[in-house]
Amino acid sequence: MAALWVLAGADASSAYATAMDRRSFVRVGALSMAAGWSLPRWPRSVADLPRPSAAQVTWQRDELAMFLHFGVNTFTDREWGDGKEDPAIFDPARLDARQWARTAKAAGFRAMILTAKHHDGFCLWPTATTRHSVANSPWRGGAGDVVREFVDACAAEGLRAGLYLSPWDRNHPSYGDSPAYNDVYVTQLTELLTRYGPIAEVWFDGANGEGPNGRRQVYDWPRVFGTVRRLQPAAIIFSDAGPDVRWCGNERGVAGDPNWSTVDPKVVSYPGQSGSAVEPALQHGDEDGAVWRPAEVDVSIRPGWFYHPAEDEKVRAVDNLTDLYFTSVGRNAKLLLNVPPTRDGLIHPTDAARLADFRARREVLFGAALDLRRVSFRPLQQGGARIEWELDRPARPRIARLAEDITRGQRVASYRIEGSQGGQWRELSTGSTIGHAKLDRLTDGPLLRRVRVVIVEWIDKPEPVSLQLFEAT
Least C-beta-crowded within 10 Å: which of 268, 276, 289, 433? Predict the structure, then answer.
């Protein structure tokens, strides 16, 4: 392992650094943190620092996407179908994908992902691979195509469209006959990626159960990912194992803290992989990771993922949705919020109203940033950096939004925010990673005229970070 470097003091005019072993590092590190000293990471070449692709940058800048779980489960009142459903049960009398898209856009979402097929195997598009699809339902006289209406609605409202195709299929007779079903699955994927124009995100999970013959399916993930790359090269691929975006490791709406956008691809090498190292890798990433694979945080606005009438009074409150925003977008991740359409094929009025209130709350919190003037960016002699801003008027900020220029990689491992009125600095918050965005609720106190960010730990030469301050609570 490379030597670790420990510095004498955060603000010393001259500092010394010594290489030491792990045991000494732990002992001195504890003393240093107690004294307020800074701990740098081991040196890393700038050339080795992973950086996102243009598609990954666009994906993360969306910040909010809407998930739409919709299918036969909507009509059976189940979460997981068994594949034995009669397609005739699927008949949404008022389906309006434009209403979905308008609701998402009005709430400030920039993308939507539809469950084109869930574990029950029912396909929301007319497919040549199975009779378990909309083509054998009474909806639109058997001539309907939910995927087409969804993609067209996204385009009409300026939203980016994504599709989820469950690998587990509890209906198809070939499931469990691995080579045969892999052919079926790739055919379904090919249909989805060649009929509907640009697809922004293709969403996979590792769901895997026994097939009708009692055998387990072995998925050909390299072939699946390769098919997406060939047919939709600009699409982001999501799964536990990426390759572009990773799952955050839970469905509670909580990204890890710290949360690195970089990962070690050997720890989670395929969707559905288990093991003691998997959850920490998904939650936190890896500061020494060789590839850029940021986290997506999926959570439902209701207790279930599909619509259930009994949950109409259990839609998440605005305060809860706001907390989810802080623990997802505010921790360098993207929030994928599930909002399931009803049996009529519409977003329920309660859900739509809650989403509108959620946007209104965000506008109160983040609608008007304080005017700041950056006074200085000072690399400290022993490493780290201190960035200072002056407020145009005395203020009492309650929320800080920090950001790194992720096109140049992710560098900050820990920081603290300090404020001053008349020359004496006090701590407002501390944090670990920053990345695309980090939201901090600040400690209350006197009015401030200056604020500074001290980069305490870093994995590469620190660069200026951006800061926005907001007065609303």
Answer: 276
* CA trace torsion 206, 211, 216, 217 (10° rounding): -60
Q: Which helix (H) or strand (E) covers residue 396, if one does? A: none
Protein fold of 54-366: TIM Barrel (3.20.20)
Residue with tokens 């939650």: 283
Instruction: Tell me whether strands 448-458 and 385-395 are parallel, antiparallel or unpaired.
Output: antiparallel
Residue 442's closest CA among 387, 412, 402, 391? 402
Residue spans per domain, the chain: 1-39, 54-366, 368-473
* Pairing status of strand 64-68 against strand 111-117: parallel
Q: Do residues 132 and 183 touch, judged by C-beta distance below 8 A?
A: no
Which pLDDT does position 19 carry in this prediction?
Answer: 31
Alpha carbon distance 41, 59 (integer Å): 29
Can you count the helices (H) and strands (E) in the chain? 10, 20
- What's residue 423's pLDDT? 80
Q: What does the pLDDT look like over 111-162, one tens digit per residue?
A: 999 999 999 999 999 999 999 999 999 999 999 999 999 999 999 999 999 9
Residues 247, 281: Cα–Cα separation, whole Å: 10
Residue carrying structure tokens 């179908």: 81
In this prediction, residue 44 carries a pLDDT of 53
- Surface-to-core class of residue 236, CB atoms within 10 Å of its CB (0-12 exposed, 13-18 middle, 19+ buried): buried
The CA-atom distances, in angstroms, between 321 and each of 5, 20, 79 are: 41, 46, 22
Enter the CATH code of domain 368-473: 2.60.120.260
Tally of CB atoms within 10 A around 164: 19
| Chain-centre distance for alpha carbon 234 | 18
pLDDT at 256: 97
Q: Is 467 helix (H, G, I), strand (E, B) or coil?
A: strand
Q: Mapped to the 3 state alphabet, what secondary structure does 92-128 carry? A: CCCCCHHHHHHHHHHCCCCEEEEEEECCCCCECCCCC
Q: What is the predicted pLDDT for the residue at 285?
A: 98
Question: What residues does 17 pair with on adjacent strands?
Answer: 7
263 near 249, Cβ under 8 Å?
Answer: no
Tokens read off for 7: 């510095």
How many C-beta atoms surround the C-beta of residue 111 within 10 A?
Answer: 23
